[in-house]
Amino acid sequence: MEIFSKQRFSLIEFKDIEISKKDYFSEHWRKYNFELEKDDFLGAFINWEMMGDVPQEIECFMEGINELRTLAISNLSVIICSFAEKGKTSNEYVRIDAKNISVELFKMSPFSFRCPDNLIVEIEEK
Q1: Which helix (H) or strand (E) holds 104?
Q2: How many CB atoms lie within 10 A of CB 55?
Q3: What three-state secondary structure class fits 67?
Q4: Most distant pair of Cα atoms in the chain: their distance
Q5: Around Cβ 107, how many Cβ atoms within 10 Å?
Q6: For residue 87, which phi and psi values (nearest 5 degrees)?
Q7: Domain-wise residue ranges, the chain
Q8: What is the pLDDT along the chain (126 residues), one digit of tens a residue?
Q9: What is the pTM of this model?
């Protein structure tokens, strides 16, 4: 997936995703699944103070999502995961139009005063 390799994400095939993550997010898996791994990606959210001032790294990630959508991919979901442990992890699930993705991703910033452990965003096709 060259779209995200430019941003230094590693692509993890579904068969290689940790079993605990597979179990935890089982109801959200689709026909095709993969994990984008980047150790410092969540750090980009830490200093995101204002919704309208999107950090470059997150802006590039959103551009990658939009590029994926041009490939006629339907039922696209994005899961931003800080950790996945049943009974201990808080999730927020939203279904949105793609133009609102930055509003939803901002929830992962501590400045949003929401900051769930995991954000599950289903992007609707319009």
Answers
A1: helix 101-105
A2: 16
A3: helix
A4: 37
A5: 18
A6: 85, -10
A7: 2-124
A8: 688 888 888 888 888 988 888 888 888 887 778 888 888 899 999 989 999 999 999 999 999 988 888 887 777 888 899 888 888 888 999 999 888 899 999 999 999 998 899 999 988 876
A9: 0.85
